[in-house]
């Protein structure tokens, strides 16, 4: 095959020299033809992806695998064009083999870390922890956004702050990743708050549930939402978490339609709770302390000055007591 390509390339070079003015260097003709072949190969690679794209997309449901296959098709066409260009330049099998050996040695020494990313990229494509378009969160780094692209080497995330993050697959495969939209985009979140013991507990719970239902993005009712074998009420629900030191801890659970609006919806629900608590007998709790003095608490000495003038401080060393002695209690001094 290589000999056929070289014979065809030689004939093409001779034909080009016959058309061009006499005296044109053969090397210049070969380089020009090689560049032309590479340009045609580049265009054909894009055309092959465009033609085969729909067929591959229909047969493969996952967008990440579809993109990987199409990248392979384009790479194959480019390698074919590079082989034809090498035949035009007269590069033989021995030279190509030597070049491949040298490149392999460089990859083994310098680019060894990429091998881990490639292997982990295959794991990600096979295990399917997330897919293009899913909203994920890298918990230890705090990155949250939509998966823009998955390649063999890296995962590209479009964050909610309108920025791009590129994480190598060797790193993201070892991290904890939360997928908010793998099966269902509906997300269940909770808000905790405390009310005083003097508040109307039942009225406070009902007011919190109504406040959540009044927000547009919150699911106000409907059939139960199933997660595995568990079923949760679709309507907001407020439960007693505990009886704390400073008040009764309540926790409000509700479902929302879009996970990327958690901050906005959480703030809107809290505003609605605050407005409804103003109309009922409920008060938010805060740390309070009640001090009680009894017979075993000792004696508390309190001095109140209503004159409105600040008394000058006296030096205990210069103001002894009536008997010329200082009080034994430092507080009395």
Briefly summarize what is shown.
With 333 residues, this protein is of the alpha+beta class.
How do the SSEs run, as a string of H and E? HHHHHEEEEHEEHEEEEH
What is the CA-CA span between the terminal residues? Answer: 109 Å
Backbone structural class:
alpha+beta
Binned, the helix content reads 40-55%
Per DSSP E runs of 2 or more residues, the count of β-strands stands at 10
Q: Could you characterize the architecture of this molecule?
A:
Helix 2 packs antiparallel against helix 3 and helix 7 (201-213) packs across helix 8 (262-277). The chain starts with a helix and ends in a 56-residue tail after the last helix. A hairpin with a 4-residue loop joins strand 1 and strand 2 (143-150). The chain has 333 residues and is α+β, with helices and mostly antiparallel strands. It contains 8 helices and 10 strands. Helix content is 43%, strand content 17%. The strands form 3 sheets. Strands 4-3-2-1-5 form a 5-stranded antiparallel beta sheet. It has a 3-stranded antiparallel beta sheet with strand order 6-10-9, covered by helices on one side. It has a two-stranded antiparallel ribbon with strand order 7-8. It is elongated. It has helices at 2-19, 26-59, 63-88, 93-109, 112-127, 169-172, 201-213, 262-277; strands at 135-138, 143-150, 154-159, 164-168, 177-179, 187-195, 225-227, 230-232, 237-243, 248-256.
């Amino acid at each position: 095959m290589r000999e056929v390509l070289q014979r065809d390339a030689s004939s093409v070079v001779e034909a080009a020299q016959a058309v061009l003015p006499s005296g044109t260097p053969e090397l210049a003709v070969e380089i020009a033809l090689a560049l032309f072949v590479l340009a045609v190969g580049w265009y054909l690679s894009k055309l092959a992806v465009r033609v085969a794209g729909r067929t591959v997309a229909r047969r493969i449901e996952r967008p990440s695998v579809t993109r990987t296959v199409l990248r392979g098709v384009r790479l194959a066409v480019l390698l074919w064009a590079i082989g034809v260009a090498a035949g035009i330049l007269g590069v033989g099998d021995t030279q190509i083999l030597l070049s491949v050996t040298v490149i392999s040695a460089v990859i083994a020494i310098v680019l060894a870390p990429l091998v881990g990313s490639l292997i982990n990229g295959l794991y990600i494509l096979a295990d399917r922890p997330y897919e293009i378009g899913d909203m994920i969160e890298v918990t230890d780094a705090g990155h949250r956004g939509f998966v823009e692209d998955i390649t063999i080497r890296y995962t590209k995330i479009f964050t909610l702050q309108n920025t791009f993050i590129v994480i190598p697959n060797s790193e993201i495969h070892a991290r904890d990743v939360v997928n908010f939209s793998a099966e269902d985009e509906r997300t269940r979140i909770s808000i905790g708050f405390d009310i005083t013991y003097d508040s109307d507990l039942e009225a406070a719970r009902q007011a919190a549930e109504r406040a959540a239902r009044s927000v547009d993005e919150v699911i106000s009712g409907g059939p139960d939402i199933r997660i595995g074998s568990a079923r949760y009420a679709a309507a907001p629900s407020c439960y007693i978490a505990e009886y704390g030191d400073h008040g009764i801890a309540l926790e409000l659970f509700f479902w929302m339609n879009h996970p990327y609006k958690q901050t906005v919806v959480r703030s809107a629900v809290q505003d609605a709770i605050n407005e409804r608590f103003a109309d009922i007998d409920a008060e938010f709790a805060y740390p309070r302390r009640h001090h009680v003095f009894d017979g075993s608490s000792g004696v508390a000495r309190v001095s109140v000055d209503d004159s409105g003038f600040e008394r000058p401080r006296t030096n205990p060393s210069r103001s002894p007591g009536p008997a010329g002695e200082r009080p034994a209690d430092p507080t009395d001094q």
